[in-house]
Amino acid sequence: MKYKQKCNYSFYLAPFLWGFLGCIIVYSFMIFHFWWGNHDWKPLIYGISWDDGLFEARYSQHLFVSFLLNGQILPVLNVFIALLFLNILCILSADYLNLIKKKKEYLLFIMLLACSPYTFVLFHYVFITIPMIIWGSILILLLRLAEGPHKLWKMIVSVLVYAFALGGYPPNISFAITIFCGRKIILYQSKKQSLKNIIIDSICLGCALVLGYAINQLIIHYLTTFRDVEFKMYNMRTSPLIEILQKIPQEFFNAFKAIFDIYMDLGVFYASFIMITFICAVFYILKTSHNKIISMVMLCALILATRIAYLISENAYIAKFRIGYWAFLGLSAVALSILFNIKKQIIRNFIFALSIIALFHFINTDYEI
Predict the structure, then answer these.
(1) Residue ranges of the alpha helices (H) in the chain?
(2) 262 within 8 A of 322, measured Cβ to Cβ
(3) Per-residue pLDDT tens for 155-177?
(4) Measured between alpha carbons, how far is 185 from 302 in angstroms, rounded to an integer?
(5) Which of 89, 138, 113, 88 is nearest to 328 (CA)?
């Protein structure tokens, strides 16, 4: 059985606008006090060309800024646009994860993801904030093409876009795969998609990613041969297949260890929020699943998906905070979608109240940062 969901676009407008307004208020200090990272002054003065990322094989990183802003990094406006697309990303994530169609749940979902203290990682390098978020949004849209009916044109489009996404901001792939695994868990648990179709969709996604990655490596080979490229960058050095398989047990353990690393950097409350929501979501899935073994396997795949970048790359730890942001953004979105979709009203009200408390704490932490 294949699952199709009709889309009522007017429903999303109010949560999106209120979420965007909330983000502007929460991040107003950063927006209007010209908070910039240590790499941003040169792009601010001289602007950015589409090929400025070629030295590290980011051949499609600056396409959007070149197109939208003519290569200019502008005070205030740049952050406004980034927050606009961050809200779009959150809306797309909620819809893809089949979040219950209620505006208050959508708004709370957006605010919890967008106002997380971890979001500040996106603005460490303001000149690449827009492409990071836009590529994440595009990947969510692209995940729809991995679902049936499967056609050749869908595969071709997916392969080409994945190749460009890998040349834009590679850690976004970890976010996309995490979201994909979460959706399949939700659909399987609610009996809206069969295991057979989930496997077929996963194979299609895997093929598209592998072929897109092959094109990415061909482009990198060309750049290292004919252009001045720093081949030691973390997004360019990949591990051999045997080494990737050997790292799976360790990275599965590191997925949990990463939460404690967040505790050291962002505080016990945020780390506890991630852990508690995930544990509650896992407990609910296992309790209500019609096949606990299959659900456990899918949950393990979800956990490993947050470590894709570390499995594939030899030097991913160089950018562990930004990579970790995208992994935990996906994990948080999945956990919140599962919990907000619980049918018992009393439990949902309790979760909603706790989420509001968490949101206020997030906002307070954002101001402290």
Answers:
(1) 9-26, 28-32, 41-46, 63-68, 77-96, 103-114, 129-143, 152-166, 172-189, 195-226, 241-266, 268-288, 292-305, 308-312, 320-340, 345-368
(2) no
(3) 999 999 998 888 888 888 889 99
(4) 9
(5) 113
Instruction: Write down the pTM of the prediction.
Output: 0.89
Give the whole-angstrom CA distance, residue 230 versus residue 290: 50
Higher pLDDT, 363 or 110: 110
Which range is least confidently modeled, 203-212, 239-248, 336-345? 239-248
Contact 368, 216 (CB under 8 A): no
DSSP string computed for 313-343? BSSGGGGHHHHHHHHHHHHHHHHHHHHHT-S
- 102-120 pLDDT per residue, tens: 899 999 999 999 988 888 7
Structure tokens, 350: 């309790």
Task: Determine contact, residues 262/321, Cβ cutoff 8 Å.
Answer: no
Report which residue type is found at 209.
L
- Residue in 91, 131, 134, 141 with CA at minimum distance from that of residue 114: 91
Gap between the Cα atoms of 76 and 86, Å rounded: 15
Beta bridge partners, 313, equal 238
